[in-house]
Amino acid sequence: MPANFQDLVALMARLRSPEGCPWDREQTYATLAPMLVEEAYEAFEAVEDAREGRPANLCEELGDLLFQIVFYAQVAAERGEFTIDDVTGQIHAKMVRRHPHVFGDTVVRDNEELLRNWEALKAEEKRAAGGGESEASLLGGVSSKAPALMEAHQLGVKAARVGFDWRDVDEIFDKLREETDELRAAVRERGEAGGDSDGAGAEHQRVREELGDLLFAVTNIARHLDVEPESALKLTSRKFRRRFGHIERSLRARGRKIEEATIDEMEALWQEAKGAKGDE
User: Fold this and answer.
1) Is this model's pTM higher than 0.85 or not?
2) Is the same domain home to 40 and 75?
3) Where residue 76 sits, what CATH number does that domain have?
4) Which of 23, 49, 98, 99 is most buried, by the most CB atoms less than 10 A from its CB?
């Protein structure tokens, strides 16, 4: 019989018991944190596998992520702080509360109104919990510890829900051109100033800021096109790995080291990889 959720909870309790696993017993909030992040990223990566017709990997990675959640809850239970039932109970209550259009009498016209209601409910929850003004900020729910691309995307999403947004994607393309021109100007000024040996000078700092503005504009284009930028960039990174691997394998087959190849040779092999069947 397949194990159910309570079996997994019982398994975790056994692993943490005196008769269980010494390594599992030693783990704390702090030591588990890197593994939680790693498993979350592996699940994120597996989403692309599922989209490409390989869902088994996503199933496995979600299991690994769930195990980390159960692990944390077991540590918390032993510390007398909360249990896995508290975790599931709180999220169940929260989702019911934030879906009054499903579980109550609220009527919404479209997704835009639905999302505005969602943000209003979140703000009300924070006020009810005694949150300060900074905690009640609309952007407060976006973690500053998230990867930069993901954080930028979510900041745009949150602001757009209250109408702070470009009217259409063409306006953002105009902004992208503006930011590109400003970055070029900053790079030119840095060059004219002789550059920065340690990357700490004012000219280098301006290049850094303008590059950030350019990347932020790109995340807003992605949002308007309903594309999640983190997964889009992951997809391109996979493609780069695959094509660069073709260059390496082809050169090895010719008895060449990649360090000895010219840029023209590598570019020809890159184009060959691009034209290969299954390369998208």
Assistant:
1) no
2) yes
3) 1.10.287.1080
4) 98
